[in-house]
C-alpha cells in the first residue's frame, strides 16, 4: 500500500516556503511552479495544498471542493500559460511502477512544443 504522508518531502517544503520555487499560480487549493529540471519548454507542476501522497490518495480522501479546486487550477494554469490554443499534456506518476519520485500528489503540465507520441 501507500506510505504515510512524509511532511519533509520536497513539495511539502516548497509549500511551506522552506525551499524556493518559481511560482506560476497559487490559490486556496493548489500551488503551481516550474519544474526544476524541465523536460519541455513549459514544464509546470501543480500540487494540492493538502497532504496527499498520490493521485489515488487524493481522489479517495480529499473533499469534493479540494478536488474541484485543484483541477480547476490545473486548467487555469494551462490557459494562462497560453497552452490551450496549441495543446499540452497532463501526467501524474503514481507509486513505484509509475516512477513517482516525490510523495506529494502532483500533476505535470508539459507544453510549448509539439510533444512526441506518449511512450511508457
Ligand atoms: P515525479 O517523478 O515524482 O512525478 O516527478 C517529480 C518532479 O519534481 C521531477 O520532474 C523533478 O524534476 C521535480 N523536482 C524535484 N525536486 C524539485 C525541487 O526542489 N524543485 C522543483 N521546482 N522541482 C523539483
Automatic annotation (TrEMBL):
One Pfam family hit: HIT
Domain HIT: residue ranges: 10-120
Placement of sequence motif Histidine triad motif: 104-108
InterPro entries attached to this UniProt entry: Histidine_triad_CS, Histidine_triad_HIT, HIT-like, HIT-like_sf
Top-level taxonomic group: Bacteria
Protein name: Histidine triad nucleotide-binding protein
